[in-house]
């Protein structure tokens, strides 16, 4: 069983971006380990992308969104 994600500080500049990524994964109902198999990135890279402390690369963001079945054009504009 995986440990719960830590809170995102709402004062961080990327809080909204990270919260959106987390919501996308939760809507899909998959774990980071399952996402890793779909995204071809390690679970830690994917969870770091949704931590909100720094902007993930577009490659990681794209893989995250595609693994969750999210709207790529929307996330590209957010990135």
Any key phrases for this structure?
single chain; 79 residues; mainly alpha; 5 helices
Helix/strand layout:
Blueprint: H1 15-28, H2 32-39, H3 43-49, H4 58-68, H5 72-78
Describe the structure in your own words:
This protein has helices at 15-28, 32-39, 43-49, 58-68, 72-78. The radius of gyration is 11 Å and the shape is globular. The protein has 79 residues and is mostly helical.
Note the total helix count: 5
Q: Biggest sheet: strands, sense, closure?
A: none
Integer-rounded radius of gyration: 11 Å
Structural class computed from helices and strand pairing: mainly alpha
Helix content: 55-70%
- Mean pLDDT level: 94
Summarize the structure.
The chain has helices spanning 15-28, 32-39, 43-49, 58-68, 72-78.
């Amino acid at each position: 069983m995986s440990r719960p994600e830590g809170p995102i500080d709402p004062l961080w500049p990327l809080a909204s971006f990270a919260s959106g990524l987390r919501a996308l994964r939760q809507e899909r109902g998959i774990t980071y380990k399952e996402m890793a198999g779909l995204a071809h990135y390690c679970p830690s890279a994917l969870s770091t992308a949704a931590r909100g402390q720094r902007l993930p690369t577009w490659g990681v963001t794209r893989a995250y969104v595609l693994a969750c079945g999210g709207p790529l054009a929307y996330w590209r504009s957010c990135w």
